[in-house]
Amino acid sequence: TAPPVSVEPRPAAPAAQSLGWLRARILPNELVPEPDPHRRGLILSYAPGTGPPGPIHRKSFVYDGALAALAFSLAGDRVTASRILQALVRVQRSDGSFWFSYSGDVSWPDEADHEMAIIRSGATAWVGYALSFYLEGQPPPDSPRAERERDRFLATARRIADFLLTLRVADAPHARGLLRGGRGVVRLTVDPARKTVQEVYQDGPVRWISTEQNISSFFFLASLHRVSGEPRYGAAAQEIRQRLLGSLWQEDLGQFAQGFREDGRLDRTLALDCASWGALFLVAAGETDKAARALATADRLYQNRHGAVAGHRPYHDRPIYDDPRVQRVLMPAAPDARWRDLAIVWAEGSLGVALAHLRRGDVDRAREIVGEIAKMREGDGIRHATREVAYELSASPSVAGTAWHVIVEEALRAPRARGVWAR
């Protein structure tokens, strides 16, 4: 059995730098000194860096909040991890889900006003995983306050799991037990009169199925089963495991498919998460040969360089934008470009590859990737990507890149300790 995570903060120097940046992003902060009262303790996902602040710099994405809580838990700073988790508990919706992002300075979205707001099973599962990971590493409660915190976090995690289980597919044998994407879609389209790109919001249930979101949900449900002892969560995790391996693993691609489309057809788009996070899932599932193949695919198809930084891009052969008209407006110099044609490094995705290499025992390769991504520091934060891709990736310092840096640095420092997505 792996030793428990220490309750004393003891991160290595590079991780400490990233943790300091993450602390400064928690509301209230310099950018939003007077947040909406219900948003205090959430973490703003992007910093303006050297540019002027925009709307994205006042938003907190729940996936990023979960990552930050995990980073602080791993580093032994349970006080800060708890602060972020308590804030996430406060914004949970009555059905157990979360909006994908929350404004820090105003009350959007809420039940009365959620135009443009979406719900995603994967982001919701990450919040659940951050809660259950915190509880798995929690010493036995030694005070009424600690007991109340445990009860509150466990109740929140159960509500998350129960919401996710409402998204299970029951009517399609090839996808039975997998979770659908959530609710709401924001599509890019072109205004023909103005020749500008606009976002169009469509509310309603999402029918497609994402491999990445089901991997996230697998790890959450498995962890919650260990914490709660409730068999139904373990059974749901195992059903997802079986369907991922049986229906979504693609032997000829050497990685998982991206998922199933709305009409039920297999979506074989080549996405990095389906190779790198896929490798982490396969290691945890005991599928060592497939894990090696997926990791080799991650390095073969997605490795990229932008300037002085070597890392990985998010996709291989798909267009930058699904709608060719949108791409012609946003990328007039490269209307037919695909992701493989674009010089870009994605910090979060590259660090996921590093963690997968580490889990397979290749410490040197993991350190090499981390060293490259460290070149993406701006201030003390790690930029989301080396360049801006409108509506897709930001070049701002980001919680996702910075928290993933802590996660991998802590895994390198203490490889035998309990780690993110280790089982």
Q: Can you summarize this structure?
A:
By secondary structure, the protein is of the alpha+beta class.
Structure description:
By secondary structure, this protein is α+β, with helices and mostly antiparallel strands. The protein is 44% helix and 14% strand. It has helices at 13-24, 62-74, 78-90, 121-136, 144-165, 211-228, 231-248, 273-284, 288-302, 324-330, 347-359, 363-373, 399-413, and strands spanning 59-61, 101-103, 119-120, 180-191, 196-210, 249-250, 255-256, 259-260, 266-267, 303-306, 309-312, 377-378, 381-383, 397-398. The strands form 5 sheets. A 5-stranded antiparallel β-sheet has the order 3-4-5-8-9. Strand 12 (377-378) and strand 13 (381-383) form a beta hairpin. The radius of gyration is 20 Å and the shape is globular.
Task: Describe the secondary structure blueprint for this structure.
Layout: H1 13-24, E1 59-61, H2 62-74, H3 78-90, E2 101-103, E3 119-120, H4 121-136, H5 144-165, E4 180-191, E5 196-210, H6 211-228, H7 231-248, E6 249-250, E7 255-256, E8 259-260, E9 266-267, H8 273-284, H9 288-302, E10 303-306, E11 309-312, H10 324-330, H11 347-359, H12 363-373, E12 377-378, E13 381-383, E14 397-398, H13 399-413
Helix pairs in contact: 1-13, 2-3, 2-4, 2-13, 3-4, 4-5, 4-6, 5-6, 6-7, 6-8, 8-9, 8-11, 11-12, 11-13, 12-13
